[in-house]
Design goal:
The protein has 288 residues and is an alpha+beta fold. The protein is built from ten helices and 13 strands. Strands 3-4-5-6-2-7 form a six-stranded antiparallel β-sheet. Strands 9-13-12-11-10 form a five-stranded antiparallel β-sheet, with helices on one face.
């Protein structure tokens, strides 16, 4: 009987371990000053071999920032996959003025982004995860449980959007034209946006841009404060280019993926966010 109970408990443990959460808590950084804390985190990441490509200080979230980095091995693996895999190249790390550090659980995010191609990059994902843990420490995971096998087709609930749904924003005759349009519109600050980072892979005709949503009324500050600013590593939003098309993940998918434990009541308090955000991303994409 004892052996049977032990076997059952091991089975339950294995099942529970299959659930993933979107973020991992890192070791505390210097506290009291956001710039100092952010610089400390950037230094640790650079020393571990990551390349810093952007720093985001969201409007309306004055004590929080996101550092965006890339890992050469992960970038190479995703480049080989191509297409929308470019969304997974930037790695986001959240920093707070009080020294709190969090970073993406790469397995969670890459399972959602790569879907059927996850296995092609699994080794690179594990290596990059190990480097993050070594650089920033590994504390508790948080953000809400999602079963690993559900992430490839994830949606908050029926009939809400999945990864590809309502994501195409604009189409151009060439990759270069699409990229230049996004660059120009971010430089102009269309609809209160600005560029956080850009990552362009010309030979694969793929690119991804981090987009700060700075609008005082509809930007990220107001709705992130309503649903949980501990998830600062969810920011910034992105647009991405594949060949001549510009895409942006729709808000009911992108928000739910980043806040999977969000209650329906909370979701309803930001019910206009998916559409207002889409209009901002359309402005960046140059949608007609």
């Amino acid at each position: 009987m004892k052996k049977a109970i032990a076997g059952f408990m091991l089975l339950l443990s294995a099942f529970a371990a299959h659930a993933l959460q979107p973020y991992v808590t890192g070791a505390a950084a210097a506290s009291g000053d956001l710039n100092a804390a952010t610089a400390s985190v950037e230094q640790k990441l650079t020393a571990a071999g990551f390349s810093v490509i952007g720093r985001h200080m969201p409007k309306g979230l004055p004590n929080q920032a996101t550092v965006v980095v890339t890992d050469a091995g992960l970038t190479a693996a995703l480049k080989d996959i191509g297409g929308s895999a470019v969304v997974g190249m930037p790695i986001r790390v959240g920093v707070k003025a009080d020294g709190t550090v969090s970073y993406l659980n790469l397995e969670y995010w890459q399972r959602a982004i790569l879907r059927k191609d996850f296995g092609k990059a699994e080794a690179a994902i594990k290596t990059a995860t190990g480097k993050l843990e070594q650089a920033l420490g590994k504390g508790a995971a948080f953000g809400g449980d999602v079963e690993a096998e559900d992430l490839a087709s994830y949606r908050y609930m029926f009939p809400m959007e999945r990864f590809d749904d309502r994501s195409e924003l604009a189409e151009y005759k060439s990759f270069d034209e699409a990229v230049k349009t996004v660059q120009d519109n971010l430089a102009k600050g269309m609809k209160g946006t600005s560029k956080v980072y850009e990552l362009i892979v010309p030979d694969k005709k793929i690119a991804v841009f981090g987009v700060a949503l700075n609008d005082a009324e509809y930007g990220e500050g107001w709705w992130v404060n309503k649903i949980g600013s501990d998830h600062v590593a969810a920011l910034p939003w992105e647009v991405f280019v594949v060949n001549g098309k510009v895409f942006g993940l729709y808000g009911r998918y992108r928000t739910a993926l980043a806040w999977p434990s969000l209650g329906m009541g909370q979701f309803m308090t930001i019910s206009n966010h998916p559409e207002t955000t889409k209009r901002m991303l359309e402005a960046v994409a140059g949608a007609k």
